[in-house]
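Worked problem 6 (solution included).
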Amino acid sequence: MTDKNIKKNQNTCSLKDVLDIIGGKWAMPIIYHLSKGKMRFKELERTVEGINTRMLVKELKNMDANGIITREVFATVPPTVEYTLTNKGEKLLPSIVSLHTWGQEFTV
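Solution. The predicted structure is:
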């Protein structure tokens, strides 16, 4: 394999990285709902139809670790946690809306 082919293959890995971040079943619906503003954990759990608590926690941790959302904890009893999209997360919205539009046209 030549150096040119190796570099070309390394550049294509960015799509895999994107899918690792938002390729989960629940990531895009969570991002979409957070585009409407800050939401608490229970609000997200009720809004994202079909998701269970364990999966929501997992997806939120992944998106927080990747800088897609921010998690703000308030010192109340019980603790209050709010989630918002970061600038990085907001830049995903046009792509998610495009995928949604495509899905409505070709999968329904």
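Discussion: The first helix runs from residue 3 to 11.
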